[in-house]
TrEMBL record:
It comes from Trametes pubescens (White-rot fungus). This is Large ribosomal subunit protein mL59 domain-containing protein. Pfam families: Mitoc_mL59. It comes from the Eukaryota. Transmembrane segments: none annotated. InterPro entries: Ribosomal_mL59 (IPR037507), Ribosomal_mL59_dom (IPR040922). Residues 6-168 form the Large ribosomal subunit protein mL59 domain. PANTHER family: 54S RIBOSOMAL PROTEIN L25, MITOCHONDRIAL, LARGE RIBOSOMAL SUBUNIT PROTEIN ML59. One of its GO terms (molecular function) is structural constituent of ribosome. GO terms for cellular component: mitochondrial large ribosomal subunit.
């Protein structure tokens, strides 16, 4: 048995064993089990309890389930959307896994707790971080000034060849004029 299949099997046994030990008749029915991927509210104290499995552990279980083709056996949660589970369950029913379906730990379960997916603006176009915002983050000053400096540099470089030619002629005339003044005696070196 592969490690991925073993991880999913251990997860299912860990979650179902206490329920089946308490009432063996539930093995034929579709039992309702508390979703370990979601936080739940304690009915006695009214306080919220965190999920039994962390997000990192959920991601590891999902990777294992994908590798072994048992994604439909996991409950929905933040790392696994209900739509993905539905797609996986339809593909699992069409595949030839009749031997695995006969085992008790692969039985259908109704997970208690509702997972609500958050709609993120801009996720459909690939811009989740800055969706709905007027501008991007503040950034460094050189990042904010880059466009202005680029525009100024382009304007200065536009007629640079004419400016260089004019500079050389004026400087050349200035040097010749100074030499003329020295030769005529108007200026002393």
């Amino acid at each position: 048995m592969s490690a991925a299949l073993q991880a999913v099997k251990q997860f299912r046994i860990r979650e179902l064993a206490p329920l089946l030990k308490a009432d063996p008749k539930l093995s034929t029915a579709r039992p309702k089990v508390l979703n370990p991927f979601l936080p739940h509210k304690n009915p006695e104290s009214g306080r919220w309890a965190p999920p039994k499995y962390s997000l990192r552990r959920q991601a590891e279980l999902i990777k294992s389930a994908r590798a072994s083709g048992l994604l439909h056996l996991l409950p929905p949660g933040p790392k696994l959307a209900p739509k993905t589970i539905e797609d996986a369950s339809t593909s699992a029913q069409t595949s030839a896994e009749a031997t695995e379906q006969a085992k008790w730990w692969t039985a259908a379960i109704e997970w208690d707790g509702e997972f609500k997916e958050k709609e993120v603006k801009g996720a459909d176009v690939g811009n989740r971080l800055y969706a709905g915002k007027k501008r991007m983050f503040k950034g460094h000053k050189w990042e904010r000034m880059a466009d202005k400096r680029t525009w100024k540099r382009d304007m200065l470089m536009k007629h640079m060849s004419k400016r260089i030619a004019r500079f050389k002629t004026v400087r050349g005339l200035g040097g010749a004029l100074r030499l003329w003044r020295v030769l005529t005696g108007d200026c002393v070196l």
